[in-house]
Amino acid sequence: MHSQCMLYANAFFNDLDCYENNKGMYKGGGFILSKGQEQWSSRWGFIAASIGMAIGTGNIWRFPRVAAANGGGPFIIAWTIALFTWGIPLLMAEMVIGKKTGYGAIAGFRDFLGKKFTWMGTWIVGVCLLIMFYYSVVMGWCMKYFTLALTGAFTPNSTTEMTTVIWNTFTTTPSETILFHFISMSVATIIIYKGVSGGIEKASKIMIPLLFVLLIGAFLRAVTLPGALQGLQYLFNPDISMLSNPKIWLEAFTQCAWSTGAGWGFIITYAVYTHEKEDIPCNCAIMGFGNNVGALLAGVTVMSAIFALSPSADFAGEVLSAGNSGLTFIYLAQLFTTMPFGQVVAAIFFLAMTIAALSSLLPMIEVGVRAFMDAGFNRAKATLIVTGGGFLLGIPSAYSLNILDNQDWVWGVALLVSGLFVAIAMINYGPEKIRTEVINAPWSDLKVPKWWTYSMYMIPVIFVILTGWWMWQASTWSPDTWLDPKEVFGVGTILVQFAMLLTFAIATNKIFAKKSHNRNAGDMEGAIE
Amino acid sequence: MSGQSIAMMALVIGFYLSGFVYLINLAFNKKEA
Fold first, then answer.
1. ipTM score here?
2. Is the C or the N end of chain B the one with fewer CB within 10 Å?
3. Any residues with CB less than 8 A from the CB of A483 and at least 6 apart, and which?
4. B15 vs A76: CB contact, 8 Å cut-off?
5. Residue-range definition of the domain harbouring residue A492
6. What is the pLDDT of residues A22-51, one digit of tens each?
7. Phi first, then psi: what are they for A276, rounded to 5°?
8. What's the pLDDT tens digit per position in B16-28?
9. Which residues of A touch B13 (CB under 8 A)?
10. Which of A81, A237, A256, A286 is most worth mutating to test chain B (most B CB atoms within 10 A of its CB)?
11. Do the beta carbons of residue A297 and residue A213 sit within 8 Å?
């Protein structure tokens, strides 16, 4: 394992002479910009890409289900508090690292926290890429279902048995799942290859308004269905006494952590391409609010549709307990067939899912591409390495649902660790100093009060509680096998895979740090050398 | 749908939509970074 890690790392830094030549820079107010470095052409472009990053399939297929299962209204209150104590503060922290260092997550952590802690950046990039491998497969599912809706594969008044057959046939035909995984990765490759302003920004400026138009269209259709109010009653259940249930808080914080994109390394990467005087607090608040508005739109749509179209309340309950993919690809696909113009609504819905998935897949790839570019690779090479590798390493998840579920489980929890690392970087540097000097810069549209500083100190506490709870839950799901590494949703599989990534990150720490031009250490008073 | 649920829905959607619109307005009508 160790020698393999070293070989990989050596290959990674093979072209470092090129790195030294390419990385010109200037310093101003702690901000560094590489010579000839790509940039967002406008603030709207950066915000559109960032909202796209945040709004993914989780907003559409996870939020409605989890909100409904956890009391509706009380969950939404806890989820809102989580946005202000975990989501937005961490997005701001990530933007600070990206802007302050001018590097992606690996070199950014090295420069911000110190050479000894480069491994934390490697962990963040590693987790993001490991999620990217299977997320492309998920986007392929959405794309496949969009084509099924367009071609009239869902016959009117289908039963769940019929849609189950369609789902099972598709997911057990590897040639199809791999083909759609390939198409997803190819679309993303073309966009990433075209660069930040010519690719990601241009695509986001089209995708994000279109996504909101599609979501609003589906929202209007769903809420006007007879019986839709029952779903809204469920989603906005006002029983706030349920806030005394800790499970609601844990689920709300988890949803926020997984959905806003905080801790993924996305905003560290996207911030590298921002202008020197780009605002931090207002932009990050827009990302957080945009994410939650998208989730609420999807929540109202999905809940209205489920309750209006289900033959009984029991059936609606069955739909909500079907899990993410079951709810979307079996039950919703079936329910759409029972309404007028159901094919059109299904096509709109699965197109929205595809766009949401693509807009989140792009930053996942860009996190990896930025890491390679920081090491001296040009964009074309970096893109081909990351997406080519992503396609190959995503094949197991395309082949087996169990592997995909396992990867989703393991690296979903790992995101909480990534968020912790970002908070540690802030605590080491001095959160109050960052707040007053970097976040509340003279050109900032919003001034952030001290809650941001307190949030940074609270995040490690929240991390311990959330991680402990998820581990405990996993041990109760399978009490006899929870430590077995082969158990899909066990603790053992988390421990083994975390250990493997951590070993890689620590083994490569010196190599990833030592040959790189440590150009920013002098600026970083808090950096540990 | 109960009155309390309607109030909760109005509060939640009103908070998020007005917040989102306010922030967008702040970002684009004040200055271009």
1. 0.92
2. N
3. A490, A491, A492, A495
4. no
5. 2-517
6. 333 333 333 344 444 789 999 999 999 999
7. -55, -40
8. 999 999 999 999 8
9. 296
10. A286
11. no
